[in-house]
Amino acid sequence: MKHYLLLLFCIFTSISCISQVKLIMEKHGNVYYIPGKVNGLPMKFIFDTGASNVCLSLTEAIFMLKNGYIKESDLGDKSFSQIADGNIVENTKVILRNIEIGGITINNVAAVITNSLDAPLLLGQSAIQKLGPIQLDGNMLVIANGKNFPSEEMAMKLYKQAYQQVEAKEYNKAIESSLEGIKNTIDTKLLASLYDNLGTAYYLNGDKEKAIESLNHALENDMNNVQARYNLGVYSYEMGLQGQALRAFKLVTSNPNSNNTDYLPAAYAYLGEIQRLQGCYKEGEENFLKSIQLHPSSMAYLGLADLYSAKNDFAKAAEYYKKGIEYAPNRPSNIKRYHQLGMCLFFENRINEAYNAFNKCIQTSVLYHDVMSELINENDSITIQLASFSVNAGLWVARTAPSAAESIKRYTFFIDTNRENELIRDDYFLLARAYASCKEKEKAIYILNKGLEKYNDDSELLFAKSFCCQHWQEKIDILRKVLNNEYRYEPRNFDYGTVYNNIAWEYCLQEKYNEGLPYSLKAIQRNPEHGYIWETLGEIYFNLGKYQECIDAMTKCIKCNDTSQYKSAYRFRGQAYIQIGKSKEGKADINKSQNMY
Hints:
Layout: H1 2-18, E1 21-24, E2 26-28, E3 31-38, E4 41-47, E5 54-56, H2 58-66, E6 75-82, E7 88-101, E8 104-114, E9 122-123, H3 125-131, E10 134-137, E11 140-143, H4 152-167, H5 171-183, H6 188-204, H7 208-221, H8 226-238, H9 242-252, H10 264-277, H11 281-294, H12 298-310, H13 314-326, H14 334-347, H15 351-367, H16 369-377, H17 381-400, H18 404-416, H19 425-437, H20 441-454, H21 459-466, H22 472-483, H23 496-509, H24 513-526, H25 531-543, H26 547-559, H27 566-579, H28 583-594
Parallel strand pairs: 4-9, 5-8
Antiparallel strand pairs: 1-11, 2-3, 3-4, 3-7, 6-7, 7-8, 10-11
Helix pairs in contact: 4-5, 4-6, 5-6, 6-7, 6-8, 7-8, 8-9, 9-10, 10-11, 10-12, 11-12, 12-13, 13-14, 14-15, 14-17, 15-17, 17-18, 18-19, 19-20, 19-21, 20-21, 21-22, 22-23, 23-24, 23-25, 24-25, 25-26, 25-27, 26-27, 27-28
């Protein structure tokens, strides 16, 4: 038990010895007053580093003698000293058994009693030196209490050392150096820099919570430390703490006219990115543009592109994706950016440019194939995402290919490598169309049937298949299946007027004009702006002997913008005119028809 008490005594004594004492002194005029006790009597001294001794007035000394605070045995001989005005004054020496300042007690302090009744009480060097190392900061007195004061020079050396260790990726060493540096200074600006460096080391070492805590300590010491504000914003953003990041970046940009402008462009870009994620597009756009105005960067351009893409302003998005990519065209992260650029160009119907962008996506991925393969095996989420963009780009290259042969080649790769499951309905449609344009109808039908197995009786695929059928009745049956969904499905690659017209035309080719007429009239109701629909109706009317109706239909056809139907329209209208006795008009139309190519 005695050993335990002794241990506690040693611990508390040790704590007392190493702890610093901070005292706020009262300022009156040009002097500072500090409270203390002399032999237990509370007194207020003028803190005077220029005085050699503690000085008591005669009034205070008499009071202390009468009340037992000073004994006669404490008094010494007479002495003489020169005061500020040059005069020599007589004093009485006295030994003060103890003086207590801020909880620190010093013993056997030499002092003098002046012969003046109203002389000020001075705490001079005879006491100050016994207090040990001190520091003054305005009205703040800091007493080291038996331990040497921290060295500002050492703290700065440790800060620089920690900074270099961070650069060398020696994060544990940087943490140790920063913590030691913090112990060696009370300078708030240097403390803020040390805490900022500590936060960076913690973050890069994976201890993100301590990083945020350290940066907050940095700002507690110096709210104007822009680097700490900026780092707090970046780390908070990367940790998903958008609110905290937003506040930090707003503080960085709150005084753009300050000397610390290096962080402004990136801070504005981060603000824009956070506001984009929050759907505040106007504010985000303004901050991205401010960032670009101060210092154009890939980060700001790409962030602005993402914002415009979210607003479906694909033309502007494509413009800024291009600018952002230009900074480092072969950067791995641009695998994603090339894909985004391609999509924006596709939505703008700039198909050839989209094809080139998707190709660049694949080419950039090939550059980093080996590295990416290793990271994918390690389940690196970012690399897996980039790889998915590259794979998807392969499909988009097939979709936007400038030729049918190229499209077939690209799609065949997916099918031959057992990746047909990645094809969607439109891919079967596009591949079949490519085969059809190459006069390979059997392959086109094969692909369409595979698509129809996957997407049962899909209207788009059925419509495409109707062009590949050899027998007219099969074609009509397929088109009727398409019409079964007329009021349930909104088509993308055709319109229902064309479906009705194509059925009518097949009947027309088979000279089944009466059966084709209802479909032709329905086609007119659905899409009267199509010239080829009026031409089909006019031809059916002519073959049914309804010449005036033929003339009216062909006149409507000629008023449409589809010039490819004009030659047939003029010919049938001319023949219809002749049939009703208008030879002049008929011959004029036939001549027009014969002069067309």
